[in-house]
């Protein structure tokens, strides 16, 4: 496979990307309330290895995400809300977030991020959303490789990455200093050919 | 790179190399303009660059790169790079006017993160001088600088997975093989795998290879 024959495609996400039960869509100003609940959870901060966000930080982060809908150059980051559509009297709400960062255009390499709000875990939503983002990365953007990185002690993302067909490629000992301790970081990866083979087997 | 003032807080114990560091058989020191002949001989050598991310360099490109190397003597902020000449005293320089020994390799440290105290180490040796443990000797001195002087908590190395000589050297230094990244680099016309090695400060300090 030749990098020159397979240039990356610049992709703008303008509308929602539906999955079986969810909609992945660009963030909107109205998402601030759902985002705040997420950003102020100590459990979330710990699992994502970041500090809890202040109100101003959440607003700033949302502002950035409103425009994070295009992947073209290295460093570009796509941020999408995972929305559970309205059901009867239950209004639609944001239950998580996914991201895809183009780490290198020459190497056609991207990084996947996926976080579900605590009340919506263990229902397969993460798998559903992340599958759609991988599909987007490989089929629409044309990346060669996607990686995911997380706290090595955190079993949920490891399980999700494994179910997605990603390979455990590295365990970086004491890669980060966070919240008064050294954190080991796991890196998982999957290649375009592997994703394609997996799709044909699963009939996805 | 951003100007120094915009690069966040500095490391509490910065390192600036002005004087030569003498090891058993070698001298590690900042480059000088007189090193160009030796430097160009390395950068223009096929074997040297085979597993490196950069291309073969002409003499002119080597001169430009050497000019940059001469300024890379300080580790203080995230992104700072230290590049030292590995000089073999007694071996005549390719530059007849040079008063120092020949530069047979390049030893480097990159301060990847001040907050996480992470440093990346790199080494390059002219193949005519391979097999004698010079790269290991130079890298031991660089690990001493990174951990003993700069206060790095972890030093890592990334290398081409086909570069078995360098992988063996990383293991001799006591570095742990932490990862193998499949096809993560588009490299000189093909996808390449890369290896990731690392060692922690307490592991290096306890090693008989460190200066303690």
CATH superfamily label of chain A: Gcn5-related N-acetyltransferase (GNAT)
Q: What's the overall average pLDDT of chain B, rounded?
A: 95
Secondary-structure-derived class of chain B: alpha+beta
- Please give the domain count of chain B: 1
Strand order of the largest sheet of chain A: 2-3-5-6-7-8-10-9
| Total number of strands of chain B | 10
Strand order of the largest sheet of chain B: 2-3-5-6-7-8-10-9
User: What string gives the helices and strands of chain B in order?
Assistant: EEEHHHEEEEHEHEEH
CATH class of chain B: Alpha Beta
Specify the overall morphology of chain A. globular
In a few lines, what is going on in this structure?
The complex is a heterodimer of chains A (204) and B (212). With 204 residues, chain A is of the alpha+beta class.
Report on the structure:
The complex is a heterodimer of chains A (204) and B (212). Helix content of chain A is 31%, strand content 33%. Chain A is α+β, with helices and mostly antiparallel strands and 204 residues long. Chain A has an eight-stranded mixed β-sheet, with helices on both faces. Chain A has a two-stranded antiparallel ribbon with strand order 1-4. Residues 1-5 of chain A have low confidence and may be disordered. Chain B has one domain (16-206): Gcn5-related N-acetyltransferase (GNAT) (Aminopeptidase, 3-Layer(aba) Sandwich). Chain B is globular, with a radius of gyration of 17 Å.
């Amino acid at each position: 496979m030749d990098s020159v024959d397979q240039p990356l495609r610049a992709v703008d996400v303008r509308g929602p990307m539906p999955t079986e039960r969810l909609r992945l869509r660009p963030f909107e100003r109205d998402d601030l309330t759902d985002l705040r609940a997420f950003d102020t959870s100590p459990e979330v901060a710990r699992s994502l290895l970041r500090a809890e966000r202040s109100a101003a930080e959440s607003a700033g982060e949302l502002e950035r995400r409103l425009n994070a809908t295009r992947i073209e150059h290295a460093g570009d980051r796509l941020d999408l809300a995972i929305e559970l559509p309205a059901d009867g009297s239950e209004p639609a709400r944001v239950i998580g977030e996914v991201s895809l960062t183009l780490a290198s255009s020459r190497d056609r390499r991207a990084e996947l991020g996926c976080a579900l709000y605590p009340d919506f875990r263990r229902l397969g939503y993460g798998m559903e959303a992340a599958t759609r983002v991988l599909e987007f990365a490989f089929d629409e953007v044309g990346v060669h490789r996607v990686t995911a990185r997380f706290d090595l002690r955190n079993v949920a993302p490891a399980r999700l990455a494994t179910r997605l067909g990603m390979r455990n490629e590295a365990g970086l000992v004491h890669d980060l200093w966070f919240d008064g301790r050294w954190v080991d970081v796991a890196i998982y990866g999957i290649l375009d050919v592997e994703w394609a083979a997996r799709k044909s087997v699963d009939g996805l | 790179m951003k100007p120094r003032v915009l690069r966040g807080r500095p490391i509490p114990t910065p390192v600036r190399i002005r004087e030569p560091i003498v090891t058993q058989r070698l001298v590690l020191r900042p480059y000088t303009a007189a090193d160009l002949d030796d430097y160009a001989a390395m950068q223009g050598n096929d074997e040297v660059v085979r597993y490196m991310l950069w291309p073969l360099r002409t003499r002119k490109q080597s001169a430009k790169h050497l000019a940059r190397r001469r300024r890379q003597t300080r580790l203080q902020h995230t992104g700072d790079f230290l590049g030292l000449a590995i000089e073999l005293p007694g071996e005549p320089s390719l530059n007849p006017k040079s008063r120092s020994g020949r530069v047979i390799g390049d030893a480097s440290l990159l301060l990847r993160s001040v907050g996480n105290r992470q440093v990346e180490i790199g080494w390059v040796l002219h193949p005519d001088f391979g097999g004698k443990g010079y790269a290991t000797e130079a890298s031991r001195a660089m690990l001493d600088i990174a951990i003993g002087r700069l206060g790095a908590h972890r030093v890592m190395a990334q290398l081409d997975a086909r570069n078995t000589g360098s992988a063996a050297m990383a293991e001799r230094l006591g570095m742990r093989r932490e990862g193998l990244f499949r096809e993560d680099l588009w490299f000189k016309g093909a996808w390449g795998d890369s290896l990731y090695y690392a060692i922690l400060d307490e592991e290096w300090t306890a090693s008989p290879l460190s200066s303690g």
